[in-house]
Amino acid sequence: MQVETEPLATGHQQGKISLVQLYCLRYPLAHPIKTVMGEWASRPAILVRVEDQDGAFGWGEIWCNFPPHGAEYRTRLAALTLKKALEVVDICRPFETFRKLRNRLHILSLQAGETGPADAIASGVDIAVHDLIARKNGVSLTRHLGGNTQVIKVYASGMDSRDRERLVDQARESGFKTFKLRVGFGLESDLAAIRSLNELIHDDESIALDANQSWSVEAINSMSNALHQARPAWVEEPLPVDSSASVWSEAARLIGCPVSGGENMRSHSEFDEAICGSVFQIIQPDICKWGGLSEVHSIARRTADAGKQYLPHFLGSGLGLVASAHMLAALNPSGMLETDVNENGLRELLAGDVLKIDDGRVRIPSSAGLGIAPERETFRQYETIYEEINLT
């Protein structure tokens, strides 16, 4: 498919960021969330707000889920590095933002071994710059990115397969029709989950699995017959992302249904290999983790040109969720938006009812930019760090 229009032009004048504000938030959970990577006792988020010389502003989000206390560190790192790095950014050329910022942070990322944090910082600022330009042009972020779609489908994710019946019922009551279970809790547990898939869903529903890189070819071989019988909608990240091509090919053969991945890919070459190869049918970059809107825009278009599906990965606050919704609406309006259904006050606090689910769908905000503009007073109680960078 092709997007309905090209991204809007922004003119040739040069524009600079004059102010950056970083808000590190942490929302305490009533009950810890258990994942393959460990337990979460709280939900973190790093919001970034940028402002230009005219007072126009935009919001973005920096990925910070792991390690548990990484959010505070990444906020400090952003505050330390962005003033110098932002000298090269021209906000009137928003699609150059991630690349220019990441190039400025390259030596630091090598010296400190901080590739992931540098990617995420550049991604969050990139999203904020696009939001600023869309607001300034008076168009929605979807329109700014080249789309016109106003309604997209969503699916429920983050559900622990060991509590699958309750969680699927709960998500169904919230309006979802597609569900994704987290597996990777041991062969016996995963087999039980796979064998129960068709009993969990209704005729008009579908269900997928997310292994979070935790399986091996040997484990997949033991589950192969069950997977072939259950036919999940897709299996996400069954192997560590850096597994060899031959190992990935064997895993895909044994799984026998669509394989997805992308949230832990960190370069155009990695994505091109996934897009052009035969293993992955679904490509899932995370705009807050690598590439921002600028690079993921290109990846999503190449994915569509290859006849594959772009479905954004997302696991963060309501702000990044809304940004991901705009990206999906612009680049793959027939796709589905990942929506974590675990407790997360920062999702409701920042997105509110903007993405209200109705029969498995949500309506995309049509007002300028993201369509939301967080007020500090609404989240101040969850702030752990605030940093301000003045570039004037």
Span between termini: 43 Å
- Give unreliable regions as ranges: 1-6
Helical residue percent band: 25-40%
Globally, the shape reads: globular
- Rounded Rg: 20 Å
Q: In the CATH hierarchy, what is the superfamily of the largest domain? A: Enolase-like C-terminal domain
CATH topology of the largest domain: TIM Barrel
Outline the structure in words.
There is one protein chain. With 392 residues, the chain is α/β, with parallel strands linked by helices. The chain folds into two domains: 17-138 and 375-390, Enolase-like, N-terminal domain (Enolase-like, domain 1); 143-363, Enolase-like C-terminal domain (TIM Barrel). It is built from 15 helices and 13 strands. It has helices at 70-85, 97-104, 106-112, 115-137, 141-144, 164-173, 187-195, 197-200, 217-230, 245-255, 268-276, 292-305, 318-331, 345-351, 376-379, and strands spanning 17-35, 38-52, 57-62, 151-160, 178-182, 206-210, 235-236, 259-261, 280-283, 309-310, 336-340, 361-363, 383-390. α10 links the parallel β7 (235-236) and β8 (259-261). The longest helix has 23 residues, at 115-137. 48% of the residues are buried. Residues 1-6 have low confidence and may be disordered.
